[in-house]
Amino acid sequence: MFTRYASQPGESRGRLFDETGSAHRSAFQRDRDRIIHCTAFRRLKHKTQVFVEHEGDHFRTRLTHSIEVAQVARTISGVLGLNSELTEAIALAHDLGHTPFGHTGEEALNDCMTPYGGFDHNAQAIRIVTELEHNYAEFDGLNLTWETLEGIAKHNGPVVGDLPYALAEYNARHDLELGTYASAEAQVAALADDIAYNNHDLDDGLRAGLFEVDDLRDLPIVSDCFNEVDRKYPGIDKGRQRHEALRRVFGVMVEDVLTESKKRLAKAAPKTAQDIRDMSAPVVQFSDALFADLQQIRAFLFSHMYRHETVKKMRVETAQVVRDLFAAYMEKPDLLPVEWHQLNMADQALARSISDYIAGMTDRYALQEHKKLYG
Questions:
Q1: Structural domains of the chain sorted by starting position, each given as residue range(s) with its CATH number in brackets
Q2: Whose CA is closest to 358, among 321, 315, 308, 316?
Q3: Which of 125, 194, 239, 296 has the most Cβ atoms closer than 10 angstroms to its Cβ?
Q4: Using one digit for the tens of pLDDT, what is the confidence trace for 258-271?
Q5: Which residues of 317-341 are buried (b: 16+ CB within 10 A; e: fewer)?
Q6: Is the pTM here over 0.85, yes or no?
Q7: SS3 category, 107
Q8: Hey, what's the torsion of the CAs at 246, 250, 256, 258, to 10 degrees?
C-alpha cells in the first residue's frame, strides 16, 4: 500500500512524447521494462565495477551491481510505503552512462572531453535514455516518464551550477527541475547504491586477496559482524564466513536507513510526493552514527582496494586505452563506424560523437579496438 507521499503512476507528469497507456502495466513498470530491454543495459555485463571484465568471473560488474542496487532499493521502498516500481527503474538505470573501465575510464574520457564540455556519467545516462537508444519507431531514446528521468538525473541530490552539456541539452527541452531534491523513490535508489557497493566491494576485495579478514577487525560494523559469525560458527570455511558476515553488514545498513528515514518522514509529515521535492534536505538517509562508520569503511576500501598496487596498475593501462582511442578517432574519424560520424563534422560535434561511442563500449570491446588500432 502506497503512502500519500509516494509517487503515484496515475499522477505522473507523463512522457516527452505522448503514448497510449498500457492496460496491464503502470507507467513506471513500463519504464523499468524498457530499461531492462535496452542495449545499454545489456552492455553493463562487460563493464568494470572495480575489476576489469577479464580479471575474473565472480567479481561484480556494472550489471550485477545494478541488479543488487535494485534489489536493496525495492526492499527499502516497500517498507517505507513508496512506489517500488519507480524505485527499481531508477536503480536499474543509474549506471547506464558509465564508460568502460569504471571511474578510471570516466576520468580519462572527461580529460579528453575538457575542451568540448567534459563528460559526466549521470548526464550520459540521461543522454542514453533520451537520445542514443534507437529502438522505437516514433522517438529516439526510451521516452521514460518525467519521474524516472528526474530520478536518474538527480538521485544524488540537486544538480546546480554549470550543468554537463548532455544534461543541459535535455533539460532545455524537458525541465527536470534540477535545483530541487528528487522523489523519495530516487533518494532510496541513491542510498541503495551506497549500501550495495560498500558491501560488495568488501566481498570482492577479500575474494581477490587484496586484504584479509584480519585487516577488517578494527572496522566499525564489519568487525562486529565477523566476530558474531566466528562465535556462532567456529571453524567455518572462509567463503561461508565471508558471506555470513557481509550479509549481516548488509542488514545493519538497511535497518539503519529504514529507522532513520521513518524518523525523518514522521517529523517532516509530507502529504504529497511534491512535498518531498520541496524540502531542504533528503528524507531518506543514514543516521549520523552509521554515516560516520561508513566513512571509515570507505577510507579503508580506498586505501586497501581502489588504490591497491594491482588495481592502480590496471587503472593506468585502461586510462591510456581510453585516451588512445579518443585521439585516434579525432585524428581519423573514418575509423568510426559510419553511423557515428559525418563528413566534415566540426570538432565539437565530432568529439561528442566519439565520446558517446567510447562511453558505450564494454571493457572487452575497448581493449579489442585498442589492440586493432595500436597492436
A1: 9-173 (1.10.3210.10), 187-310 (no CATH), 312-374 (no CATH)
A2: 321
A3: 125
A4: 999 999 999 999 99
A5: ebbebbebbbebbeeebebeeeebb
A6: yes
A7: helix
A8: -160
